[in-house]
């Protein structure tokens, strides 16, 4: 008999010996021996979950558009050669910020996102993800309200950091939930619907921020978005939580204690304390192992490097786009123009990328082909757009460029979800989000601000920025040649259950003693 079958036989024999007596005779209730799998919440359907996450994602990115809009961001105080000065407007005018400081303000949320994303991803193994989302959205709501009440540059910068903390809880967990719930043949399309809310939210933020800032005051824009997010923060606490598939949070609650009737209360307390310390050490160890698994994965690394270069451009477009359009083409309604183009092209491009990949029978190899091709075409059209002198020519070519650029949203996140094991998906999305921000759109806004301060030519700055899209296309093209299997179908990790049997000793997962057997 092979060793693995012998172990299974011995495991079953010992289990029969342990559980032969009724639970009551062992001093335990039936519920302590077996635990039913968590029931699906009554409110849950896949469609409702998708709509819920799309609305939250939309509000999250409306905030990005608000702070970049001319109505909220405003302009600095300027003086002409004759000494005649015009007062500034919005945040930049009220706090007298340079372009560099203004760019830093747009990137301040990254500090919170960087710190909180890995923490929230790791906590999914011990806490309900929906509760974590509720905590994060509560922080986001308070921080957005704080932005509207800011009295100095540093106060609003700290509030922007806390906005990043709130975003971290949601952005790393939403995609795995959607991937679990979506029909098999429509997974990429569902992801496309979710990520479609990014350009749409930013565009709505341009329009909303421009209108509120010009008609009322820039502070009301932040207070309004805080009120919109408040019901969803309450939802995370008030409703029955939904559990991720292959999540270890529920497994940790299913540990079995056998022979506890012979232990005193003090012994149980000491055992519980030692178990908590042991679990904390295990969490740190597991996090280190998970990080190593991501960093050595070539497919994941290439995907993220391309995504960083891509997001460097998109981040600067979203922040400086309205201001560049106003200065290059003298757009009277730059917020409305860029907002309208981004809404239409963002929706059409993002949905098209997802549906095309599904029609091609989605795979990592085909996703890389779509990523490199769409990004290259988008770079060509956007570069030509900024070369043109005509406003109408610019609008046509820039719209085509944005269509192709946004077609990458679903494929790039499909690769991040499917090149790793199911249990690594939250951490994969968290590290992806942190990386594209800390190396992408966070430095891009202040760096383009510094570039513009030095060359004082918005057209040249836009062309230099757009050329980086060609680099992103080249990096993703490298992924086409890599061997890439879909690791999301690997369920072997959830098929191992370690049970320890020792009279008078708690049975715990993975304590590594001699009486542990794998089934």
TrEMBL record:
The keyword Disulfide bond does not apply. One of its GO terms (cellular component) is membrane. PROSITE patterns: MFS. Keywords: Membrane, Transmembrane, Transmembrane helix, Transport. It is found in: Membrane. It comes from the Eukaryota. This is Major facilitator superfamily (MFS) profile domain-containing protein.
